[in-house]
Amino acid sequence: MKYYDFIIILFVTVLLVSNVVSAKILNFGPFTFDGGTILFPVVYILGDILTEVYGYKKARRTIWAGFAANFLAAFVFIIVGKLPPALGWGNQQAYEAIIGWIPRIVFASLIAYWCGEFTNSFLMAKMKIATRGRWLFTRTISSTMVAEGIDTAIFCALAFFGKIPNSLLLSVIISNYIFKTGFEVLFTPFTYIIVAFLKRKEGIDVYDYHTNFNPFKLDKDYER
Question: Which of the ends of the chain has fewer CB neighbours closer than 10 A, N or C?
Answer without folding.
Answer: C
